[in-house]
Design goal:
Blueprint: H1 8-20, H2 26-46, H3 52-59, H4 61-66, H5 68-84
Helix pairs in contact: 1-2, 3-5
Length: 86
């Protein structure tokens, strides 16, 4: 049986997938937060530290859904962080 490794590449993939999820209504936000919790759990179990730019982005989807400026700012910061990952 193959062992699955959760590493920076898997984290980048999961964050990119979350980035594509809609957050415009309560049902979509609930799905986003369920996926975000799973990502945080996998990262913690793998010993990966999530920087504030990531944890803030994960925690504030509801605020981003209401505030276009916050959304643009946080999304740009997350994209820059993802681009910097190897």
């Amino acid at each position: 049986m193959a062992t699955l490794v959760y590493d920076a590449l898997a984290l980048k993939r999961d964050l990119s997938n979350l980035f594509r999820l809609p957050i415009g209504d309560r049902l979509a936000l609930n799905q986003f937060y369920l996926e975000a919790q799973a990502l945080v759990r996998r990262a913690r179990e793998a010993g990966l530290a999530l920087p504030p730019v990531v944890t803030d982005w994960l925690a504030q989807a509801d605020a981003r859904s209401r505030d276009p400026l916050l959304s643009a700012t946080q999304n740009a910061a997350l994209v820059a962080w993802l681009d910097a990952l190897e």
